[in-house]
Amino acid sequence: MVKPNTQKKAKAAGAKPSEKIPNKPKATEKKAVNASKRKASKRKADKVPVNQVATIPMAKLKKETKKSVEKDQKAKNKTQQKKPKNSKKLSKSVYKAELERLQLELVQMQEWVKHAGLKVVVIFEGRDAAGKGGVIKRISECLNPRGCRIVALGKPTDREKTQWYFQRYVNELPAAGEIVLLDRSWYNRAGVERVMGFCGHTEYTEFMRTCPEFEHMLQRSGIILVKYWFSVSDKEQEKRFQDRINDPTKRWKLSPMDLEARARWVEYSKAKDDMFAMTDTTNSPWYVVDADDKKRARLNCITHLLSLIPYEELPYEPIKLPKRQRAIDYERPPKETQRMVPTQF
User: What's the rounded Cα separation, in Å, for the pair 87 and 237?
Assistant: First the structure.
């Protein structure tokens, strides 16, 4: 650094040449240098591209971040609105072929349940018009009704109301070699009874406390317990309700309780979430079925059920028809003596 000519400055100011003006302290020089460096770095920062976040002013950064968040949210909403790959409806031929294959597996599973003496209970719960009955029908229509029972209990009688809450369901539990499909179950207390006020707060809390213990007790006794919740969207449920209103053969499916449940959609949602929080245990979990597409829901549920029940294909023994009995000394009465159904078709 070049030192200033102190003598020339002294003459200009009228001072004597022999007198020397003292130099500025070194600290002041350092501050000046630092200030000049900060100004230079600031000028450089203004020229730096925007993608270097460290040099962006905070106000500008916040605006851009807010815009980017809004863009990300819009993009996310668009992707959610887009239909997934499997949104295309299944063709009738594919659906029938897969259902036939799965029903054959169900027959083999039932044979093994009977052979091994297993006890199976499958619970079907969910929103009204979620497709529970359709799945139960497809499971049971190919099985032996002596070994597979559908249980759909109505409202309890005055006598049953005085019993232990689980008592009337215990009477429906399977023996060895049987399968029981529960269309609604003891979870009525956590759903419709709670929302509609059919049970008190003490009864509800006692149920939520004892239900996991009750189910674990059933499992320890050798019962295979499977629980399904059929989830349907608001829009799809409304569509199915309208179909039932317009179809005289399905109007019986719509009860005043179903319409009231529709009006209390949010309350039922909360009741379901509380129920899952208390009863979705490791030993007895809930399995949720996306039921907006009926055909896919049926196939997915049956496939999953077959994966949960261990079974083996038993060897098939060929069946031979016996020969028809030969004629004996017996004459049958004429048909005219019997009351025949009129032939109209």
Answer: 17
Q: Is 222 left (phi over 0), alpha (psi -120 to 50) or beta?
A: left
User: Taking Cα atoms as reference points, which of 219, 243, 139, 214 lies closest to residue 181?
Assistant: 139
Do residues 208 and 279 lie in contact, with contact meaning Cβ atoms separated by under 8 Å? yes
Beta bridge partners of 69: none
How far is it, in rounded angstroms, from Cα 159 to Cα 171?
A: 15
- Give CA separation, 255 vs 62, 129, 245, 258, in Å: 54, 11, 11, 5
User: Dihedral of CA 215/220/225/231: which sign?
Assistant: positive
The model's pTM: 0.73
Is there a contact between 165 and 207 (Cβ–Cβ < 8 Å)? yes
CA distances from 181 to 119, 120, 132, 155, 249 (A): 11, 8, 11, 18, 24
244 SS3 class: helix
Assign 3-class secondary structure to 86-131: HHCCCCHHHHHHHHHHHHHHHHHHHHHHHHHCCEEEEEEEECCCCC
* pLDDT, tens digit, 9 for 90 and up, residues 92-133: 999 999 999 999 999 999 999 999 999 999 999 999 999 999
Bridge partners of 288, per DSSP, are 229
Collapsing DSSP states into helix, strand and coil, what is residue 184?
A: coil
Residue 28: per-residue pLDDT: 54
CA distance linking residue 95 with residue 295, whole number of Å = 7
* Residue predicted with more confidence, 199 or 12: 199
Residue with tokens 């499916």: 253
Which of the listed CATH numbers 3.40.640.10, 3.30.70.330, 3.40.50.300, 2.60.40.1080 matches domain 92-308?
Answer: 3.40.50.300
101: tokens are: 């294959």
